[in-house]
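To whoever is covering the structure queue this week,

Two jobs came back overnight. Logging them here so there's a record in the thread.

Job A:
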Amino acid sequence: MKTKFTFFKNPNHLIKTIAIWKLNKRIIPGVMGLMMLICSIKTNAQTRLVVPNTDEGSAFIGPFGNAARQLQFIIDDTLLTTLVGKNLTTISFRLPASTTDAWPPNALTMSSFEIYLSNSVEPADRQLDFPANVVGPQTKVRLGSLPIPAGALTVGSNPNQFSFKIPFTSLWKYNGGNLLIEIRHSGTGISSRSVHAASTSSAGYGTLYSALWQSTGAVLQGNFIYVEITAENVLGENSVKIGGNSVVYPNPVKDMLSIKSDKEFTSYSIYNMAGQMLNSEKISGSQPINVARLPTGQFILKLTDKNGNTEVTQFIKK
């Protein structure tokens, strides 16, 4: 039997439905579990935070160097209050306002681009020693190669836009405290590109944020690269809103999961039931999603439209 996901337009309808099902639990065993498979949720646009909240005109090569590098960005918790309790999903960097051409001139792929998140020491206590700055466990939230399309980092505004987002491959919930972002990459192998940064002499450096890096030599202090952090509500929170009119089918699905919607979705992510991201790709409109490589089981699908709004539903892979 094929089941379609229904998006409840009116939350009251869902509440009444749950009440009826609760009254009939003895008649319909397991119906409360089934309810989770036929309702979908819609979340508001993602939270975006830029650190630091200034506009100094310095630069630093860092994440897009031509050779392998390791970098740490340490951010004081007072700058991160809007992210508390949310899943961090992407980071991005921007070109200095003085840059005249978008980058890269041609598409390239960095063979390895890993990102680790953890809590950290106070920015003032930062040492030129990567492990010494980590507080608690580090979580690898991104691994694998990083394709960068031609012209992904754009120019033409002051400051320039955070036009190229680097998505995480697993969820990480920020629960407060100083944040440490660590990047380990293989280098572009072709060319380096400086990005917008705050210098080591800026007013907040060493108190609100600090940074360090290493290539082939000693660990050094570095300018703090302007970073945009994107976060979203944790799946299943009370803050999500029921709504929408999209349908995914067939369900259960074997190979191709189709989408019926009046919205223009631009990307999707698939999570297991523990909230770990398994796959994330760009799509166009209602383009079918290939789920053939997923193991048998139940999964969460998040669809993101061109305005950054998301719809979340569940499906079964057979």
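Job B:
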Amino acid sequence: MTSSPQPPHEPHPNHDRGLEFDLSTLISRRSLGMFLGAGTAAALAACTPGGSSTAAESSTALAASTPTPAASSTAATSTPSASPTLTRAIAECGVEIPQETAGPYPGDGSNGPNVLAASGVVRQDITSSFGTSSTTADGVPLTVTLTLLDNANGCAPLSGAAVYAWHCDKAGKYSMYDAGLKNENYLRGVQAADANGQVIFQTIFPGAYSGRWPHIHFEVFESMDNATAAGQVLAVSQIALTDAACKEVYASAGYESSARNFPRTTLKSDNVFGNDGGIYQLATMTGSVSGGYTAGLNVTV
């Protein structure tokens, strides 16, 4: 057996070690409000968009959370199997989005650089850096729609909240942290939720790096003011991208390192999604390499 290549970014001994590892750090820098309801998420219910009979693609998800496809879809979602009882249960609202690690590259001031304090971070298109650089991260276009739902109020749209989203580039590297990218801040941005509780980001399809399933990080804040001040957080979680979409994108030019890394990790073996196969965090995806992809997820907080 040959050894796996080193991750494309700088080694970090604590990369995505899970919520338990992050508790002390997160609690020390922020209000305990970010964990609202996390201990009561035992009910088998969630609001995940989709259209198949698998648990992560329940057909009765709220219609408002499903983005309009940017192109014809060939990317069917690949999900873990589930019993009919669980499939029906997660179609109901009530389970809050799993709390996850922000990882070692959040850029939110918790471990060094803080993009949230920078003028220009509030934007829908996050493909380019802002401020002192205008470098654009290239890759297959991806539109991400998150629908924020208020669990305490029957999953009504959580308008007025804000989301900070970030992810790696097509080579699996993170702006603000990796060698050669410390002066870049692309693939990071903040959006306020509209009247439907939705935030939309225009970005690129992230790459796959060693040890992790392809994902997008996000933090939900109770208001835009809190987001730009790195204030009270309601949820910290991650979006899992679908197997079919990843296979198609990573077979295209520019994603060669992802094509090598992707087969080495599954949703079940991933150290973040592995406890439940990403059942509550797996996006509904449509699109094509030529026309771009969409990803939608209901986020109950």
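Note for Job B: The longest strand covers residues 141-150.

Please reply-all if you pick these up so we don't duplicate work.
Q.
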